[in-house]
Specification:
With 109 residues, the protein is an alpha/beta fold. 34% of the residues lie in helices and 33% in strands. The protein is globular.
Length: 109
């Protein structure tokens, strides 16, 4: 099993932030990148036009699917879309106990 990093964050179709940017960084550091999407966004370099948060149950399922079969050395948390998602992530992390957690909250895009 290859050591990996899981990013829990929103999408960015322009590739400048969120999951796409995290996966680029992980690749540059020669680390296997895994992801769980918290939201689909419509955005570009000018701003965010729309956000569609993922249901907490679907977010939980994504995290559990990845953590149940991968040797994850760290989890990086970015954009979360409300209390339900915060609780879902917290519960999943309590169950799986990843060794390192980085919280990188999104305040504005």
């Amino acid at each position: 099993m290859t050591l990996a990093v899981l990013t829990i964050a929103g999408s960015d179709p322009s590739g400048g932030a969120g999951v796409p940017q995290d996966l680029k960084l992980f690749a540059a550091l020669d680390v296997a990148g895994l992801s769980a999407l918290t939201a689909l966004t419509v955005q570009n370099s000018q701003g965010v036009l729309a956000v569609d948060p993922v249901a907490p149950e679907l977010l939980t399922a994504q995290i559990e699917a990845v953590l149940s079969e991968s040797a994850v050395g760290a989890v990086k948390i970015g954009m979360l879309g409300g209390e339900g998602q915060v609780r879902a992530v917290a519960e999943a992390l309590r169950r799986f106990h990843p060794p390192n957690i980085v919280l990188d909250p999104v305040l504005a895009s």
